[in-house]
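hey m, so remember when u said the tokens were messed up on ur end? i reran from scratch. heres the input so u can diff it against urs
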Amino acid sequence: MLPRVIISKYIPEDGGSNDWKKVTADDVCEYIQRGKQTEYSEDGEVNIINQRCIYWDGLLLSNSRTLSENQRPKWQDYRYLQAGDVVLNSTGVGTVGRAQIFPGNDEPYVVDGHVTVMRPSKQIRPEFLWYFLWSEGGQKQIDATGSTGQIELRKKDVLNLDVPLPPLDEQDEIIKKLESYQRQINNIQSACDERHEVVDKLSRSILNKAFKGQMTHSTYNKSLEKKPEQRKLEQFKSS
């Protein structure tokens, strides 16, 4: 995950340059609404996104459930998710405030009563809204709604979120930079995972040879020679 401090550098709490506007989420979203209480079934055709689907590092649609068919007529068309909608966890300790962007899907999706849908207008990119919610300024406002001990993000709380809004071209540039940082972090994580795998295999190999009495000084030194994965990590660190 991208550290929040990096996001907040590009989306500061008090806004950026003079051409940034101070607006509310209500100003830049066409639609903000909590989902409904739902009745589930095992063979429904409408998928329901719940809090277990929404994490900062991904939207796990595999954790969704399905809506009972007898409940389907109660869901108006505008409640069905559209590509670019931001889904926001709105209840619970440790879950409230997590958000993700719905990428669109051939199957119909709605959200349950613990999730809020934010449908961005043409004034704001879905990615910029998502990064704002992830930023220190966004999370501070969300945390403040629970200061009385009520761990719930109400619709009016979301509507009144103060959003620093740069022009669209600057939003695009910020998104581009933050996505670049995320790719770098992913590359480092991948290299570290490869190194851990190499170390694990090496440890098991050494122990296996030692138990079989095959470990000599020369074979031990040879086992410690750098593997391609280790060289890759060192090259990445020095680049």
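this time it looks ok to me. Residues 20-166 form a domain with the Adenine-n6-DNA-methyltransferase TaqI; Chain A, domain 2 fold (CATH 3.90.220.20). if urs says something different then somethings off w ur setup not the seq
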